[in-house]
């Protein structure tokens, strides 16, 4: 009787590239930032976040860091960074009951974490949102694509972590409370806070999705 042929199944990569830039031989992995019940994460699949936005309040009259959030992804195969990362993020500010000017900006930081030591890879600062409120619990938000230069050759061994840190810096002109924050929902659900409420930081015209497009060597 004839012998049945044996077919070898190809080994599937544990982390696949989302897309490639053919001009420079760079492959990108798109990570979605999300809030879990116990930690904030970077994942390659779009899953509903435990919270659609992150927000905080301040009455400071000089720029003050009101949010500092780490999103982590642990690598299960080695990868090496190469090129320019992109952070796509929506960020906003809302007034409370005082008519004054509110200002806020983002700092996005990419880090390598080996389980003990955290090393900064790159950073980028956004432009500043300026909103003059009338004490009506209204606000303004903006979606940006922030480009971040990262040094070529930053290696992530198995078990090491890629970390995206998002900082929000905010101030007010007269000391009245303001709310500022950003979206972190991979499904881009609308900010659930009712229009006119104090902490609706992402307006309906903007997405709540937060993405990191991380560049890696094609291996």
Summary, kept brief:
The protein has 219 residues and is mainly β.
Give the strand tally.
15
CATH class: Mainly Beta
Percent strand equals: over 45%
Q: What is the rounded Rg?
A: 20 Å
> What count of helical segments does DSSP give?
0
CATH-level-2 architecture: Sandwich
Shape: elongated
N- and C-termini, Cα separation: 43 Å
Major beta sheet summary: 8 strands, antiparallel
Structural class designation: mainly beta
Which stretches are low in confidence, meaning pLDDT under 50 for 5 or more residues running?
A: 4-14
Q: Helix proportion of residues, in percent?
A: under 10%
H and E order:
EEEEEEEEEEEEEEE
Question: Could you report the average pLDDT, rounded to the nearest whole number?
Answer: 87
* CATH topology tier name: Jelly Rolls
């Amino acid at each position: 009787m004839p012998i049945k042929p044996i077919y070898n199944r190809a080994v599937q990569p544990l982390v696949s590239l989302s897309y490639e830039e053919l001009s420079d031989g760079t492959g990108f992995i798109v990570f979605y930032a999300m809030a879990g019940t116990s930690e904030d994460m970077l994942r390659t699949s779009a899953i509903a976040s435990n919270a659609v936005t992150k927000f905080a309040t301040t009455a400071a009259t000089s720029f003050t860091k009101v949010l500092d959030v780490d999103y982590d992804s642990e690598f299960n195969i080695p990868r090496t960074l190469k090129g320019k990362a992109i952070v796509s993020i929506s960020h906003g500010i809302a007034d409370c009951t005082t008519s004054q000017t509110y200002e806020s900006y983002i700092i996005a930081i990419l880090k390598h974490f080996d389980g003990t030591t955290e090393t900064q890879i790159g950073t980028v600062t956004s432009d500043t949102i300026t909103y003059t409120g009338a004490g009506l619990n209204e606000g303004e938000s903006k979606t940006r694509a922030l480009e971040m230069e990262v040094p070529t050759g930053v290696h992530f061994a198995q078990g090491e972590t890629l970390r995206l840190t998002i900082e929000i810096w905010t101030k007010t002109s007269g000391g009245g409370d303001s709310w500022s924050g950003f979206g972190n929902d991979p499904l881009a659900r609308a900010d659930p806070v009712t229009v006119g409420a104090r902490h609706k930081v992402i307006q309906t015209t903007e997405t709540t999705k937060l993405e990191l497009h991380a560049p890696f060597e094609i291996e």
